[in-house]
């Protein structure tokens, strides 16, 4: 994730004061609040939360930190935790939070209908509200159409010295590795990570956007990135970033097999939430069409229901097959993935 922010309280006190005035039947009374523990790090969230407050009168107070820290904090705080909602960008962490008894189920038609059935907790403990795929980007002028098709290809000898990927300590790569473990088994997944590490054009450094830019500059021919980082570069206000991104072509891996590995922004109501109704309203807001459109164009994540028409960049990329099989086991296979990745030499 790159950085950790400590407690950030959204100082929406002005909005709260306005909520005292009679703004209409739907606006909650003064002092209504929802406390959110979030691992997200995207500017669009401030806009989302302001819109939520505007519509409901409920103030959103956010604590930002990495998911593992938030989970530890929920455990330590127990019943006295102020958190009502947990948000992570990793289904594996949500699966773990449920397993550790940190969440409570929410039944809501809006959530069941508004999120993809294969990417939500079967019992309503958490719901995915935005999707990102971990894809391969290739230098359009150096890599032919169809030359690389699967994650497995990244480890093949013909790509020696031609691959870029960020550090294996990134939760994005750990989740990808977990999907490789589920799909291939431990032995073959380890061999894959070794092959990938051997193919790197340089030791891992920087985030996904840095790999894309370095590829575009000719340092390597293919790289791994989350789709939204590519979308952010393609829509950047900086012409140099746009030019770099335009040199790259997106490949959704494993389309002829299990599908492309995805992860999700997901939200669940905490076990000891004091504002359960507000928390539910917040989750339902996140899958509303207004919020989904803001998300698709703000963070460039795919909307929950993969409605690519909400964003012109996504529309250009088209739809793709999602690997839902390994997704369901992500939490289970993550510890194994971390152990294997450490053994593989992928720094
Ligand atoms: Fe990110």
Account of the 3D structure:
The model is unreliable at 1-26 (pLDDT under 50). This protein folds into two domains: 4-131 and 261-317, D-Maltodextrin-Binding Protein, domain 2 (3-Layer(aba) Sandwich); 133-258 and 327-344, Periplasmic binding protein-like II (D-Maltodextrin-Binding Protein, domain 2), CATH 3.40.190. Strands 1, 2, 3, 4, 5, 6, 7, 8, 9, 10 and 11 form an eleven-stranded mixed β-sheet that branches. Helix 7 packs across helix 15 (330-344). It has 347 residues and is α+β, with helices and mostly antiparallel strands. Helix 2 (44-56) links the parallel strand 2 (33-38) and strand 3. The chain is globular and about 60 Å long. It has 15 helices and eleven strands. Bound molecules: fe (iii) ion.
Shape label: globular
Give the proportion of residues in helices.
40-55%
| Number of helices, where a helix is a run of at least 4 consecutive DSSP H or I residues | 15
Q: What's the CATH class label of the largest domain?
A: Alpha Beta
Query: How many separate domains make up the residues?
Result: 2
CATH topology of the largest domain: D-Maltodextrin-Binding Protein, domain 2
Beta-strand content estimate: 15-25%
